[in-house]
Specification:
This protein has a single domain (about 1-180), classed as 3-Layer(aba) Sandwich (Rossmann fold), CATH 3.40.50.1240. The longest helix has 18 residues, at about 115-130. α2 (about 30-45) crosses α3 (about 60-70) and α5 (about 115-130) crosses α6 (about 145-155). The mean pLDDT is about 95. It is α/β, with parallel strands linked by helices. The strands form two sheets. The chain has a five-stranded mixed beta sheet, with helices on both faces. Strands 2-5 form a two-stranded antiparallel ribbon. α3 (about 60-70) links the parallel β3 and β4 (about 75-80). About 40% of the residues lie in helices and about 20% in strands.
């Protein structure tokens, strides 16, 4: 069987609006981000979602809280769904980070982690998801690095190509996770 995954990024933050790469800093949704989080909930409620899994970073948790407050859909925080830890670059300008991404696919950011580390954490999360949610549809709310990890693990994309490509936001991506083994 399979697990159907719907992936959504956390909603728009104050840092996003200012061009800041938040990384492992908590971040806060902007006014527009709170409105978009409510839209995410309206869009996804009643669609057969069994559970929501969310990064434990504040901006992702805040997105899930706004989107699914008052529903019976369980929301599970998982630190394996965190954005890449940019180390000393957490909170820097997006333009500074963008120039560094390709150098940190396998080599950790100073004081942080590599994109390959995010891929490994996401793979571990997927293994547990396949074990515990076979035949279900789940929603994952996380970050761009987790989206790239899903693209690599479930769609065969190359991390080297994803980190320098423009991130095209949209209202969710769908993935199918085969069960019965690691992705």
């Amino acid at each position: 069987m399979t697990v159907e995954i719907i992936f959504e990024t956390h909603s728009l933050t104050e840092d996003n609006e200012r061009g800041i790469a938040t990384g492992w800093l908590p971040g806060r949704l902007s006014e527009e981000g709170r409105r978009l989080a409510a839209e995410l909930g309206a869009r996804r409620r009643g669609t057969g979602i069994h559970a929501v899994f969310v990064s434990d970073l504040h901006r992702a948790v805040q997105t899930a809280q706004i989107a699914f407050d008052g529903t019976r859909i369980p929301v599970h925080r998982d630190p394996r769904l965190r954005e890449c830890d940019y180390g000393r670059l957490n909170g820097c300008a997006v333009s500074v980070l963008a120039a560094e991404r390709a150098r940190h696919i396998d080599r950790p950011f100073p004081g942080g982690q590599s994109y390959r580390d995010v891929l490994a954490a996401t793979e571990e999360f997927l293994h547990d998801l396949a074990t515990d949610h076979d035949g279900r549809t789940v929603l994952v709310i996380a970050h761009s690095a987790n989206k790239w990890a899903l693209d690599c693990l479930l769609a065969g994309a190359a991390l080297e190509e994803l980190v320098d490509a423009p991130f095209g936001w949209r209202e969710g991506w769908r993935y199918t996770l085969p069960t019965g083994g690691r992705p």
